[in-house]
Amino acid sequence: LQDDPKLWKELDYANDTDRPMYQEQAVRRIRARGEAAVPAILEWTEKRGRKKLALYFVESLAEVRDERISTLLASLAVDRSFDWRPAAVHSLAAHARSRDRELFRELLHDPIWGVRAGAILVLERLSDKDSMPAIRRRLEDDLYEVRARAARSLHALGDEAGIPMFVESLSLESTWFEIDYGRLAREDALEFLRGLAKEDFGYKPWESREEREPALRRWHGWMDRRDPGWREKVPRQAKIRSREVEVTFGFELRCCQLGD
What SS3 state is found at 258? Predict the structure, then answer.
């Protein structure tokens, strides 16, 4: 690397958040180098230090499919002092190495929600059906994003346990400073359910509660036909306990340690 000052400079730019245009171009050039850039990436990380790695660059490593990069990402994922652990986990999901199975089973219980969600995705990519009971327990996670990721991954693995949670989420209401955060969950739930039902029953997540009610009844009817006992299968954390509920989203905890 020291013999290639241009590549060294590109890596500096790729991790320079103060120059986003330079960063984007540098990341694109490094990615185009492919496997040839891997030794330089590893040396730069060692010499500059992990703290110098930028979020965008860590995310870009998902596309650098190389065993050495996979090993670096796995190391970053478990390094509690590294700011961008969730990004490292999600990038490693694209590599999906079977040797990381036990690591990501442990990360299902990580205190950082983005790491938990990423671990679920990795186990899905590995088709790890032995982890399905542990993933199913994530349907009781405090955060909607983790519950939704668990539901999606379970469905991909052939388990419909998360579908009732999505139907229940169509009723979520959470307003904070006049911002309807419940709408984000409703939109996400609709996207998933529409893929199953191949229609939306006229449901519009941005409408008022009263305007959504007829379409919501149609969704409940669809779910009743699919599974008459679905209401008893809604995870405790996802149940609508009153007309107004508190919904915690990961972005409310967004920072280098508690977000994505």
Answer: coil
Q: Is the pLDDT of residue 112 over 90?
A: yes
To which residue do tokens 């540098």 refer?
26
The tokens describing 258, both together, are 């508690």
- Check whether 94 has a pLDDT greater than 60: yes
C-alpha–C-alpha distance, residues 193 and 202, integer Å: 13
Q: Scan for tokens 């229609």, then name that residue.
A: 199
DSSP 81-115: T-TTHHHHHHHHHHH--GGGHHHHHHHTT-SSHHH
Whole-structure pTM value: 0.81
96 and 90 in contact (C-beta within 8 Å)?
A: no
- What sign has the CA pseudo-torsion 115, 118, 120, 126? negative
Q: Considering just the CA atoms, what is the radius of gyration of the chain in Å?
A: 21
* 186-208 confidence digits (pLDDT tens): 999 999 999 999 999 999 999 99
The DSSP 8-state label assigned to residue 138 in this structure reads G
Handedness of CA 214, 220, 223, 228 (dihedral sign): negative
Provide the CB-side half-sphere exposure for 206 (13 A, CA): 0
